Amino acid sequence: MIAELDKLIELQKTDTNLRKLKKSIETATERRAAIEQEFEQHASSIREIQGRRESLNSNRADLEAKIADNKKYLERADRNLKHAQNQKEYETAMRETDALQKQIVSFETQIVEIMDEFEAVEKELEERAEEIASLDGKRDAALGEFDSALSGEKEEFASETAHRAEAFATLPARLASIYDRLAQRSRDGIAVAEVVNGSCTACFMQLRPQVQLNVKKGDEIITCESCTRILYIAPKEVEAYA
Ligand SMILES: [Zn+2]
């Protein structure tokens, strides 16, 4: 295979890798935000349950305070009942006692309902205890992993950019400009296409046997008759032809 073709293949591999790295670096902010968002959804669903538990607790405390108050009023009403001077006072105290007792029963019923809800919430928190305990750690680990992968990609991008400049500089000017023109023309940046099973992998056109043979020989630059990209056959494919 002529040396220029080797260099072109190398340049194409470098450029394809650079495109991939560039895309990944450019979308890093969004992808990192998506990771944070996912963890935030878990955290907020946990906060919601914890909030429900707190409000149940405070509702219960309110009801207990109301019961305590009503019991005090009930004692007073009982005293009034004992010391009633006439029928009217007696009936008033009796009605008051009755109302207070009913109120206390109603508050107690509400507390029982709250306790049932509270138990269900506690059970839910218990079931998710491991998730709750590990959530922050998992989030930090996922973001740390993401950040270190990203800085690796940035380093690779810098070294590949330098490598690209070097490889490009060693190409004859004519080939370098053909390469750049082809690469800029295609959306995927492919100027050098591998031939697999007799087809150009860029445009999928089946190559004429003579073209396949010329590519296989590799002693001159052969271009695809359909898409004009520079063609090559990878060594293992050359063996398959032999
Ligand atoms: Zn083609």
How would you describe what is shown here?
The protein has 242 residues and is mainly alpha-helical. The protein folds into 2 domains: 28-153, Helix Hairpins, CATH 1.10.287; 172-242, no CATH class. It has 7 helices and 3 strands, in the order αααααββαβα. It has helices spanning 3-26, 28-82, 87-127, 129-169, 173-185, 209-217, 235-241, and strands at 192-196, 199-200, 230-232. The protein has a 3-stranded mixed sheet. A hairpin with a 2-residue loop joins strand 1 (192-196) and strand 2 (199-200). Helix 1 runs antiparallel to helix 4, helix 2 (28-82) runs antiparallel to helix 3 and helix 2 runs antiparallel to helix 4 (129-169). It is rod-shaped, with a radius of gyration of 40 Å. The mean pLDDT is 94. Zinc ion (ZN) is lined by residues 193, 200, 202-203, 205, 224, 226-227, 229.
Q: If strands are numbered along the chain, what order do they take across the biggest sheet? A: 2-1-3
Largest sheet: 3 strands, mixed
The pLDDT mean sits at 94
The strand count comes to 3
The CATH topology of the largest domain: Helix Hairpins
> What is the number of domains?
2
- Low-pLDDT stretches are none
Rg is 40 Å
Whole-Å distance between the termini?
15 Å
CATH architecture descriptor of the largest domain:
Orthogonal Bundle
Oligomer: single chain
By secondary-structure content and strand pairing, the structural class works out as mainly alpha
Residues in β-strands, percent: under 5%
